[in-house]
Amino acid sequence: MLFSRISRNLRGAFNGYRRFLSIGENNRRFLFSHSPADSTEQVMRSLVFSKGMPALYSSRYHIHHHTSSSLVEDELDPFSLVADELSFIGNKLREMVVAKVPKLASAAEYFFKMGVEGKRFRPTVLLLMSTALNLPIPKAPPPMELGGTTTTDLRSRQQRIAEITEMIHVASLLHDDVLDDADTRRGIGSLNFVMGNKLAVLAGDFLLSRACVALASLKNTEVVSLLAEVVEHLVTGEIMQMTTTSDQRCSMEYYMEKTYYKTASLISNSCKAIAILAGQTAEVAVLAFEYGKNLGLAFQLIDDVLDFTGTSASLGKGSLSDIQHGIVTAPILFAMEEFPQLRAIVEEGFENPENVNIALDYLGKSRGIQKTKELAMKHASLAAEAIDSLPENDNEEVRKSRKALVELTQIVITRTK
């Protein structure tokens, strides 16, 4: 069949991409001044993220060789470094979603109890970032109330950020599955499929409310504001996806902005919150933000590749899910550079299965998958550079955590599920 033939061809294109590339822009907004017909290099050089901040990366980082970094002398498993804490956080999450209404509690803890949350990628990043930022603190962080008592234990506060982030993430998955009418999540029935849309939406709302309570307990207005903005971004990104015009669907700038809101905002602002709770400088907080932002963008770009090259058994959603729902992602956008006639198919939509076949045929003949991987690698490299740019520290645990954060950037772009 055409689907399986093209999927096999695209899967074969995934090998050989372990060298990081990078560019030096680090500004706060995405400014794609080029049209979809521009070259990949132009598009990549147009990706900037600006907030009036000084440049973080000099020209010497124009090409980042992964093996040259002092942080990556030997491979290590980032997840094993924080395994005990991840287990602790998993137990805390189950405790935090207990509700008076049994049906609601059962729905809220569905994915926590089923053990389908994967490796808890986001909490792992945040715990590693907590240790990586174990630097001299310019000012003491404010105390936090836990269970009626006051504590200044920084690690407990940062663990709380990991818990909050995971609850927001799972809530967004529950809502997304309802909007996408998904019937599976990580190989098991999605909550909306098992318990219905209404209960799935309420379970997501309940998780968000629990996250808000935990967030308030930190008693840090800047952190509260950051993570409240994340929830707004999640909604904004979903609305952007649902209400695109023809030009927006074919715009890489629009796609990357939406991707930041839907995927990268949560991890980037959570990383920044880790630095803020530690009382670190604005410069260190920006580096933490940049790491999370670029890691999140790389993660989603590879997710977009895997939607075409992976199998539904190994992914959180079925293969070809995006295009069958009419969602145009980076591989198709890059394919349109080489085959402008593909735009007419995209504008017509994918309700007709034959249009899906035609789009896949063009994608298989194009370098869309390869260019998407290259863009993901650029973001992965920028994330690694942010860690390299942190103030030097000779503490072995700090160095090991930084090395693990750099290793995660490679794990993200070489993953197959």
TrEMBL record:
Protein name: Geranylgeranyl pyrophosphate synthase
Pfam families registered for this protein in UniProt: polyprenyl_synt
Record's subcellular location: Mitochondrion
EC number: 2.5.1.85
Keyword Acetylation in record: no
Family, per entry: Belongs to the FPP/GGPP synthase family.
Listed GO MF terms: all-trans-nonaprenyl-diphosphate synthase (geranylgeranyl-diphosphate specific) activity; dimethylallyltranstransferase activity; metal ion binding
Top-level class of the enzyme under EC nomenclature: transferase
Keywords: Isoprene biosynthesis, Magnesium, Metal-binding, Mitochondrion, Transferase
Cofactor(s) listed in the protein's UniProt record: Mg(2+)
Species whose genome carries this gene: Medicago truncatula (Barrel medic)
Biological process annotations from GO: embryo development ending in seed dormancy; isoprenoid biosynthetic process; ubiquinone biosynthetic process
A cellular-component GO term for this protein: mitochondrion
